[in-house]
């Protein structure tokens, strides 16, 4: 893939390296293009990073070859909600880990993505920008190459749908409480004064006597943040046995990343992607009359 940048008048006389950095190209990528790629060009002529650029020039360079990956390709079905040369958004089902770990060495979203790339004759690595728990469903943003990865990093703004136990009043709310490790569990978290600052904003979309449907926006990115905060206010997620929920109506914690916002790394235009609740959460919501009278368009 080749990238193109036209030098504006305000960049007249800048050194190429500085100009590229102002365009969002990382120092690491510049070094990689110099040493393992084909170098940089101005109007077709080779240009070193310490040389000056001039207004109107077209600076081009090809991305270096993708590194090898240790992830084994496996034919795992993927739901691709958005894809272009720089970014992709996948709708991950519950029960599928995002990437290999000691507990889940294969059959992950990463394995399926590498298989998908190779089936198209492409080389690549799996670069998730945001990660969600194995039993959380929904949207995962991925960078398609080394150029897009740092520009997308930390950018994903997410809205989750959660079905919590108990009836909450309709409308907005927030939980601002520090989250830290829980002493009785390796993976568990809890609200504790020794924890890190954590903020979850939420809107109760619908409620019945037994359950409420809540749109949650985590303003900080703590482990299990929504699950911990909802349990802290007395409304654990349905199915979330780690934090006081029960599995009578659903076999996993009822949490789904439904809306994702990011800024495109090249066009700089905002992009919004959404996906519906999976069937297990939809069934629980329907049984509690939680599907009417609301829309995610505001998120």
TrEMBL record:
Domain Pseudouridine synthase RsuA/RluA-like residues, every copy: 89-231
GO biological process terms on file: enzyme-directed rRNA pseudouridine synthesis
EC number(s) stated in the UniProt entry for this protein: 5.4.99.-
One MF term in the entry's GO annotations: RNA binding
Enzyme active site: 133
PROSITE patterns according to UniProt: PSI_RLU
Catalytic reaction annotation: a uridine in RNA = a pseudouridine in RNA
CDD domains attached to this UniProt entry: PseudoU_synth_RluA_like
Keywords: Isomerase
Job of this protein: Responsible for synthesis of pseudouridine from uracil.
Family: Belongs to the pseudouridine synthase RluA family.
Record protein name field: Pseudouridine synthase
Lineage, broadest ranks: Bacteria, Bacillati, Bacillota, Clostridia, Eubacteriales
